[in-house]
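Issue: copy button drops trailing tokens. Both records pasted manually instead:
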Amino acid sequence: MTAPPGGTLIDRNHPEPLYVQLRIILKSMIDARQLQLNDKLPSERELVQLYGVSRITVRQAIKDLENLGFLQTRAGKGIYVTEPKPTYEIEIVRSFTETAEANNRKPGMQLLTGAIIQADLDITRPLSLPAGSNVVFIERLRFLDDLPVVVQRDWFAEAIAPGILDINWNNGNRSLYAEFNTRYGVVPTRGQSTLSARLASEQEAKLLQLDLPAAVLTLDQIAYDNEYRPVNVSSMAYHPVRYPLSLTQSRRRM
């Protein structure tokens, strides 16, 4: 593989981290069929030399593309271009409000926390932000027909939605995705979800009207826009009876 026309596209003065820039370069080459299905990716050493970045940068870019389904490591053979496969995923691009209204239920919410915080690496990394970056953190209690059903926590970059904390979040029911769309033109279209279960914290049990010890269903997810840029990281704790989760089979669109 040779460098793209015009030479390297890595810009050390660009606000995007180096691994994000490299991920975008490799993804654009896959889209343009410069790297075709089943083509072998150059070695880490070759990518380091070609783009003038570290091995850590190369590995993170490759890991992101593997998570998105565009690359696959084949043991003892190397890394190859692949096609994202059908996945079973929760319909993350529909907001809580949209889901409630589609099922003829009345959505509601109570703001618990709205602040700018310094995020840990497990938040900044999926958001493609430098370690220790400030992010917007919003924590809400969600209701269906006036019953508490979900404790929802969201983290996202300040630059995505400047001034969003100035909104009166306690004025009726507000949808974060609706605010992203109507105010900022940001539209989550795809993502990755992890469904699990655990014991509720004391605060979660109190908010969801559960007697301790109690289990909650959890959903952790990352949403992306059409360009595979991260929009927000979410973590939700669901009442196990009032809000049963279901899975939808879908295929990612290229």
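Record 2 (pasted manually too):
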Amino acid sequence: MSAPFDRSLTGELAGEVPPEWAVSPQAGDEERVVESALRPHSLEDFIGQPKVARQLALVLEGAKRRGRTPDHVLLSGPPGLGKTSLALIIGSELGTSVKITSGPAIERSGDLAAMLSNLAPGDVLFIDEIHRIARPAEELLYMAMEDFRVDVVVGKGPGATAIPLEINPFTLVGATTRAGLLTGPLRDRFGFVGQMEFYEPADLRRVLARSAALLGVELTDEGSAEIAGRSRGTPRIANRLLRRVRDYAEVEADGRVTREVAEAALALYDVDHLGLDRLDRAVLEALVVKFGGGPVGVATLAVAVGEEPHTVEEVCEPFLVRAGLLARTPRGRVATEAAWQHLGRPVPRGGVPLGRVTADPQAPGSSSEALFDA
């Protein structure tokens, strides 16, 4: 049986969406090693998320002045925005150790009880993807978060006995990419909830400048702006693109990352000026060319590009929707006018199909069925 702490944070989650794409927000095992060297170690060094960082600083400073453990912290938001970094910073600011695990790794309540009983006073327990924790373990976590106590059940059947076990005061930091999947009782037990937002280009340029200094890369302002503009508002993607541009600059140029070098390198890696990669453009091309702009079901769209439906839905769609290139409708996925323009194709006469999709399934010309069913 593996140790309860320090299990891989990728686990089943990363296995669902392979992180080999240049602009995937997921991180593989090797990339996490590189990320650990680039992570900030204090709130002063943490770039972006000013509201969350300021609120968290007040929570931690207040707890230190009172000589008590801080309230439990929940960090929610898309992957790659710094939730793990903030969890490690919390431990650094408090001067305590951080025990790391993930929701899918906690399959039984006994696993969680073992973790909690091994915590030293004031330790931080970080659970990534906490919404995927097993229900028996979640119910055990309720009492631990409120009373710093767990009931260990000994025996089975009518002879089973619950033995109360006191645990040291600790701070739970939970991270989730899907806050809506958290149960109400678990969400209510967090004293502080921070919602992570996508980064502005100016903040990404600061992230890139710091990473370039740590990696020993000569990065110009124009090169930084070019990489930041294609990073989808995500620091993890910005750092990944920086490393790939660095490789290109060292092999094909003089080692300096300028605008021209960044443009050539990112063109080689199929990342366009909006941050779309090969798979993103393949989805848009299939939607526009093969299906006339939609509506089309996600399963049919995935078959058209040779990928799994989950990959299209989890990797491509979030950014395409946020960029205004794709819309989800009751009838299926639809390309917007901006998608036609981005692909350099003329917008259909009479407008794109999105304008003909109505919310009322009983309205004339509308249907609850996708034009190209999944």
